Amino acid sequence: MSKINTKVTDSVNFFQGNKPSELTAKFGSPLYVYNERILRERCRELKHLVDYKNFIVNYSAKANSNLAFLEIVNEEGLYVDAMSPGEIYVELKAGFKPEQIFYISNNVSKEEMQYAIDHNILISVDSLAQLEQYGQINPGGKVAIRFNSGVGAGHHEKVVTGGKKTKFAVNPEYIPEVREILKKYDLKLVGINQHIGSLFMEGDKYIEGVKAILEIVKQFDDLEFVDLGGGFGIPYEKLNDQPRLDLKDLGTKLNKVMEDFAKEYGKEITFKIEPGRYISAECCVLLGTVHAVKQNNVHKFAGTDIGFNVLQRPVMYDSHHDIEVYNDSDETEEITVVGNICESGDILAKDRMLPVINIGDTIGLLDAGAYGYSMASNYNNRLRPAEVLIRENGEAVLIRERDELEDLTRHMISLKK
Ligand SMILES: *Cc1c(COP(=O)(O)O)cnc(C)c1O
What we know:
Layout: H1 7-11, H2 20-27, E1 31-35, H3 36-47, E2 55-60, H4 67-75, E3 79-82, H5 85-93, E4 101-104, H6 110-118, E5 122-125, H7 128-137, E6 142-146, H8 175-184, E7 188-193, H9 204-217, E8 225-227, H10 247-265, E9 270-273, H11 277-280, E10 284-296, E11 299-304, H12 313-317, E12 323-326, E13 332-338, E14 347-355, E15 362-366, E16 386-390, E17 396-400, H13 405-409
Parallel strand pairs: 1-16, 2-3, 2-9, 3-4, 4-5, 5-6, 6-7, 7-8, 8-9, 11-13
Antiparallel strand pairs: 1-10, 10-11, 10-15, 12-15, 13-14, 16-17
Helix pairs in contact: 7-8, 9-10
The chain binds pyridoxal-5'-phosphate (PLP).
């Protein structure tokens, strides 16, 4: 295979001897392929982000909540956050203990709160109304509150979750009302959390957000923890040598903020972070197959089986994913790579310089492990792909079966008796 075509995966020995086309032949195409060693490396990097003692990494499972994937995260000693009872259910199955799960709720029903309470899982609420609801069903209980410190950041408007425009969190001006509700229901506020947004590549905005939330934390005595949120970015443009987030610099700065704060607060309060993408994105390549190549007016198109039902990010957030083409061509050309869904927005990459693509080629979308499978759907009644894990010894094992046709009608009810 030509070197230009496998530069990124070669540099990390991603496939460990498995040939992409053999993987799709065996497990079907398209196919999510994960590398266990890289996943473990990412977990360890963040676990050692700071020297501060009381530090916990909550992996944000919505980025990727495959059971086997969560089992590895659990083995690495990370905890998890959850966004729904469904995530809690899978996390418990993966071996997380209730006290290792933090349910960050947003506009949830009483039944959803009750599910977490019944399983002894701590909930964070993010409005006065939800705090009131929590008080009614669990008076005397422990609770956390998600505050909006006024700082927001992110790669796309849809993922900025702090600042003036967001639906999330409680604004600090409501602290007096918060105190009233806490008192009314004898609730114990044990933690404060925030999440300013997703995919920052420089740590300064994050630090700014941390300092801002600590101003709010100070107003409450005797908290057990502060959760600083996720958002740690990864370089999606590796072929353009995009630099990595400087974790060492961020870690040093964070460590200082934590130690200074602990002194001021008079207690070695626990700090948590909740990264999703940083843990799960880079250990995954999404493989697909090219079924048509054609010239339509000025654009040349490669038509693949990776529709936006398989990978939504390019359509939803205009996201860039680097593409590798697993063939021998040494020449490059400009081409638009598209999926097989009946919508003209079904585009994976527009006018991209890539190795010349032929029908039957296997391609790989890099860094597809975060918000990839977890956002996949059966749109167009297409089957969601299988997921495969390359173990540390190089063996490729199935960790989720591909949908079958019968799955499509499993919960549908026919009118014919
Ligand atoms: C999505 C989310 C995260 C994780 O975000 P990443 O950008 O994947 O790190 C963390 N916390 C909350 C509350 C989230 O909604």
